[in-house]
Amino acid sequence: MKSGEEEELLADLILDLKGAKNKRENWIDIAKKCRKAVDHFGSTKSAAQKLGVSYSLLRSIISLLKLPVEVQQLVRERHILYDAAQRLLTLPDSKQQIEVARAIAVLPPHKQREIIQYAKVHSIKGLQRVIERVRTRPKRETEKIRVAIVPLREEIYSSLSPYAAKRKISVEKLILDIIHDWVEGRSSTI
Which of 40, 49, 86, 147 has the smallest number of CB atoms closer than 10 Å to its CB? Predict the structure, then answer.
């Protein structure tokens, strides 16, 4: 590799590995560039030092090239993201990797992870039922909770302690109950 080619490869990889996240679009091409850098510099450790990244990251990226070609294509097309692709590598054989990859390609990342985890532990026979269940299960609604810090003088906090003890709850829970009762328009019974 000529000096200019080496500089271009290093610059591309540094941009891919350390640049903005939206630059990381094609992990398979990045893995091929990483493999090329390793071949050029003689070892994964040397290439990682030149790139300013960890040995384990570089090794992890290059491992994507162990996936079957069909799975690599799904990764290249961003149907399977990096995290799920890494998890697919934990499946025992290429046949299972391909089957699971086909099944998860259209799913959101959290559902991809769930199915891969199932496939690691169970036989492939029941996988289709799990995939259907995961696909059709409604997304859980998340509840937003805000934290408010309310300064209380020690004497006020201490005066609430007997009421909390009587109800067998913490003073903090008692305060939440009082606020909830107040918002609901009920008179608090402390």
Answer: 147
Helix (H, G, I), strand (E, B) or coil at 1: coil
pLDDT tens track for 39-98: 989 999 999 998 888 999 999 999 999 999 999 999 999 899 899 999 999 998 899 999
pLDDT-derived band at 130, boundaries 50, 70, 90? confident
pTM recorded for the entire structure = 0.64
Buried b (16+ CB within 10 A) or exposed e, 52-84: ebeeeebeebbebeebeeebbebbeeebbebeb
Give Dmax over CA atoms of the chain in angstroms. 81
In sequence order, which ranges of the chain are alpha helices (DSSP H)?
A: 3-18, 27-41, 44-51, 55-62, 69-76, 82-88, 94-104, 109-121, 127-136, 154-167, 171-184
Place of tokens 């169970």: 122
146: Cβ–Cβ under 8 A, 6 or more apart, which residues?
A: none
- Interacting residues of 23 by C-beta distance below 8 A, sequence separation 6+: 15, 16
User: Is the separation of the CB atoms in 92 and 60 below 8 Å?
Assistant: no
Backbone torsions φ then ψ of 41, nearest 5 degrees? -90, -5
User: CA 10 to CA 23: how far, in whole Å?
Assistant: 15
